Amino acid sequence: MTRLRAATRVVLLCCLSACAAQPPRPAVEPSMFTSLRTTIHRDDGDDLLTAGLGLAGLAGAKPPAFADPAHPTPAELRRRAIWSNWRGIADLSADGGYGTLYGSTTRVPGREFSAYARIPGAHQPHRVLVQVPDSFDARKRCLLVAPSSGSRGIYGAIAVAGAWGLPKGCAIAYTDKGTGTDYFDLDNQSGARADGTVGALGSADDLAFVPDAGVGASGVAVKHAHSQDNPEADWGRHVRQAAEFALQALDEALPQSAPFTFANTRVIAVGISNGGAAVLRAAELDSPDGWLDAVVAGEPMIASQGGRALYDYATEAALLMPCALLDIADLPKSPLSAQAAAAGAQRCASLAAAGLLQGGDAKAQAASAHAVLRRNGWTDAALHAGALSVDFDIWRAVAVTYASAYGRYGVGEHPCGYGFAAQERDLSARAATDAERAAWWADSSGIPPGAGVGIIDPRSAAPDPSLAGLQCLRALWDGSGNDADRVRRGIAETRASLPRAGLPVIVIHGLDDGLVPPVFSSAPYVAAAQAAGRDVRYWQVRNAQHFDAFLALPDYGARYLPLLAYVYAALDRVAAAGGSGGTLPADTVIQTVPRGDKPMTMDNLALPR
User: Fold this and answer.
1) Catalytic residue among 84, 149, 151, 273, which?
2) How far apart are CA 389 and CA 556, in angstroms?
């Protein structure tokens, strides 16, 4: 294993002949990047894109095993993290068409360069990682920069950017954008090292996240919730830093072709969901080096003029949607749908008793809740797909974590009393086991519940256990008091502005998105950008919702198309256009055809030509 040198190595590289032809890149402060690592992935059982698993291994239901579950090796953790993140983002089911109709899992040998990066003034670092394939073409100098979606760890965008760019010889720069899976065990006083293994607080290891927690704190600290940085406010800067680190990594990987600069390297930013929001925030950043050449944003969780903030519609949905769905016929089914419907009937009764809904029975109350959501902009297409977020309690998970992040609350400070911990069967908190703790970095999505860490709700009480906590969360948006003001200030820091003039941007969004409805997010963003004369194109995809991975559920796969196929198609068009935004496709509504119970075909996808 070699080590990436500090940023000052750029000066030494300028002794090479390449520097005579290219101006040196402005120096980046060496302290910006720490805990530098380089690893090689060329063996028969390893590679950059699938960690040697291939499509069959990624699609397998069992995760790659740890020889010692309590002490997995860095290589085992990396393989498992890549497996987990592929399955969390892409539809790899047999009839879904991945790897045959769109996408690639071809073997790509190469090297990885990783580090911690820090935004000036931030309490905590974010991870950056650069994959340089052996097939990288220094004459074309293609770099994709990709923030993770959701709260995922550093490999969270591998199925988005890596799957498209690595087989084409592009380097990929990733960032976890200040969220990620670097959980800290407050009971055990340990966290994640740079290589993903568990390290004790106070050891020589540089841990990725150490919360500011008082003596006696217990449970699990989650970086997105407890960093006290409101990372979303800096997502554009995280993307920029990942690109800067990539140039340094390329200098190290290919010294004979150095220096790599924004002037001689084509940089495309791509992301989905809140990773899509992050690349749109990066598009705002103007600088003399013209660092960014194009942007592709899928289903972006973006808040802009005329839109609604995620926290607003997520807390609204968490309260009302379980009841409202009882008024909607032909909902897609998941294994948890029956349980969610029973809880929905209780929610109707609870809200009616609180005077928030009309009607004397569940049917009338559900109609009342449905009417409220429709008045507030929800389409029935979004409500149908939103059933998935109700079934899997996603709305509450989002609201709990984001409230803490927006308010910059530390451990034990959540204004609604929430915390995170391993749980007993009765959902009470307990200490994590060694094996659970060891797997968090690889297995978790960065936002509980999941990977053995659950939400601890001190307000939980029968007959509607989550109601009181959700009402508290909602009041942080539409209520009064110091905590509500604090959360709303944090939300205001995340509001987007226009992309840089002349920067080509393609926004892709499924019209059935039930987690980030386009009417609240991409549609007002695109309208404002186009009205200001920005070079933004908009692809609206019929019969596409938010979660490709859930298309493995038969009822969802029968109804909906994978959005990743259109993200890849947009990247194809951006790459073909070169630096000419004028050759990019016009706005379009893509008329897809659901596949029903048959395997996917190109006719179903109806990809733009």
Assistant:
1) 273
2) 13
